[in-house]
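Q: I'm writing up a methods section and want to include an example of the input and output format. Could you take the sequence below and give the corresponding predicted structure tokens, formatted cleanly so I can copy it straight into the document?
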Amino acid sequence: MSALRDRAVALTGATGGIGSALCAALVEAGATVHAIGRDHRRLGALAAAHPGRVLPLAADLSTPAGVQRACTLLAAARPEPSVLVLGAAVSRFGMFEDLDSADLAAMVETNLLAPMRLVHALLPRLARTRDPAVVAVGSTFGSIGFPGFAAYSATKFGLRGFIEALAREHADGPVRFQYLSPRATRTPINPPAVDALNAELGTAVDEPAAVARQLVAAIVRGDRRRQLGFPEKLFARLNGALPALVDRALAKQLPTVRRHARAAPIAAPPGAASPTTQEVLP
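A: Here is the clean output for your methods example:
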């Protein structure tokens, strides 16, 4: 991909921990950002921080109607975006049997169905732009199913498979599909139980600004796949080639994960927080 200067990027989850940092990094790289989120106040703050370079688009991607609104706004957006960055996601930390159906629906709707609906609606328009790309901000949990995050892992595995299949389906077309995976990241929406678990397990946790810079560099390079961080990159590869080794390692951590998961409040209703990218653990 060419440099982002004078390009327009549509970014979902723009008001989140990684999302707001990624928005700033995209602007620094020269792009104009159509920032999509549902928190009007935060969208306004982003636009005010980057006058004329961040254009707020309010839409709730946790509902089909919200996705349709985002598609309608983007179809009319000027400058026309040639890069779509899928950064919106929600997560619930807890053992699977402790989650309720609303938690499951919120994760599937926001993390998987919304990206699929957005790409389905916008792909023909993107294909007519210069050097187009669809970039999914994934997770290490899209390569490693992690206890305490079963449903979240399922949605990220699904997103990774979706982007990989589309890349192969459009291998001879103009649109590039990229799946980029941050590792644990320090964002405000991580509940205290997740922070405590990361600390007890000795998990490296990145700052959002550092993650954003790496994501922008990967977008510019055109990386089809990129797992950020080591040893997370090694663990992801091991899980694909020798999953039994990862099984044994995680089995030793299971009592610790279960203790923190059972201490975590998970009753927050879907929609209680703005869709945002949440990355935890490796």
